[in-house]
């Protein structure tokens, strides 16, 4: 396996790892307010998150940032909780304002901090640091796109087969995300 394939696989596994549900729950919150018709806006949202996440990983790999992991582990579910609250507040309207894109970049920075120490150790001493960063972040982006695409497909199934209204879908998904994030904060 080449370095590119290795880091691509690690980036994909980072998102799809069932032990790290925070990313999956966050992607659920982001995707739950979008319809398949607005997939481009959703892709921009996911990519904004990835850019923030990637920046943090670059800074960690270059030993520019050092963070209190306990604080970061508290901030991650707070970002998820805030995203669900924004979605509930704007229930039924597409989430595509510039403010939300900026929030996604900022939340991506925080989520990236949660993985930054491990990633910094992973690439320490690697002569192909740019290749490692690029392929790992590409793996993250590919996995996130697969997750949000799956959520959109599930939404279509619930809408078409079970006649679930869009506002009910948003309320149910973000209510669940809110309580999962709250339990992560408390527990």
TrEMBL record:
Query: Superkingdom, according to UniProt?
Result: Bacteria
Keyword annotations: Membrane, Transmembrane, Transmembrane helix
Indicate whether Transmembrane helix appears among the record's keywords: yes
Membrane-spanning ranges:
20-37, 42-65, 71-89, 98-119, 131-157, 169-186
Q: What protein name applies here?
A: HupE/UreJ family protein
């Amino acid at each position: 396996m080449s370095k590119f394939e290795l880091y691509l696989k690690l980036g994909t596994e980072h998102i799809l790892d069932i032990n790290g549900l925070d990313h999956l729950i966050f992607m659920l919150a982001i995707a739950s307010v979008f319809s398949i018709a607005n997939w481009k806006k959703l892709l921009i949202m996911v990519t904004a998150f990835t850019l923030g996440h990637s920046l943090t990983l670059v800074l960690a790999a270059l030993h520019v940032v050092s963070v209190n992991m306990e604080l970061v582990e508290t901030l991650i579910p707070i970002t998820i909780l805030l995203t669900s609250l924004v979605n509930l507040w704007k229930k039924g309207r597409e989430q595509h304002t510039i403010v939300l894109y900026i929030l996604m970049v900022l939340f991506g920075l925080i989520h990236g901090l949660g993985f930054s120490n491990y990633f910094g150790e992973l690439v320490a001493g690697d002569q192909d640091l740019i290749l490692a960063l690029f392929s790992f972040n590409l793996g993250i982006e590919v996995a996130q796109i697969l997750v949000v695409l799956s959520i959109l497909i599930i939404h279509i199934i619930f809408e078409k087969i079970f006649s679930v209204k869009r506002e009910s879908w948003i309320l149910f998904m973000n209510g669940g995300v809110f309580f999962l994030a709250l339990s992560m904060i408390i527990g």
